[in-house]
Predict the structure of Dihydrofolate reductase.
Amino acid sequence: MISLIAAVNKNCVIGKNNKLIWHIPEDLKRFKKITLGKTIIMGRKTFESLPKILPDRKHIVITKNKNYLISDNSVTIVHNIKDILKYKNYPEEVFIIGGEKIYSQMLPCCSRLYLTEIMSFEDGDAHFPEFNREDYTMLEYEKHYDKNIEYNFLTFEKKFQ
Ligand SMILES: NC(=O)c1ccc[n+]([C@@H]2O[C@H](COP(=O)([O-])OP(=O)(O)OC[C@H]3O[C@@H](n4cnc5c(N)ncnc54)[C@H](OP(=O)(O)O)[C@@H]3O)[C@@H](O)[C@H]2O)c1
């Protein structure tokens, strides 16, 4: 089963200059809780934006570059989106963690979306794709307000797989 996890603002912005825009400790905690022990799948640019390889998670990084090598047992490099699509039929849940290029290619194949909806309008250069909320059942809607940032944790499940 393929799921997706993302933090998105009201302009559908997810990042700027290959970085996240917000630092929301509760969101990072939620990301860790949801993905710990699981496989996380990301584009090469998102991988390079991480401060470090994330502990206790298997990383799959997609790039067209056949010479791209990461010598770490927890990182696998793939070159074709088909290598990700095969996880759709796996019983375990794997997570698409970004960025824009990967979200836009994979959103239609994701059964669940774990979103942090940030209620602000910063500009950026990376966006989350449009999707129709009516195609999903909302499993979670939790409102938060911390340090002047208002955000919601949402989980959606696709109605028709
Ligand atoms: N808010 C959030 O939740 C969140 C989460 C993650 C990332 N982000 C943000 O998103 C931004 C990065 O997004 P992005 O779209 O620029 O980059 P990205 O999706 O992370 O990575 C794009 C790269 O992935 C590879 N790729 C994509 N599709 C491929 C395919 N079909 N086959 C083979 N390789 C493929 C290519 O690598 P090569 O160029 O090496 O071929 C491409 O340049 C950053 O600002 C980051 O902070 C936000």
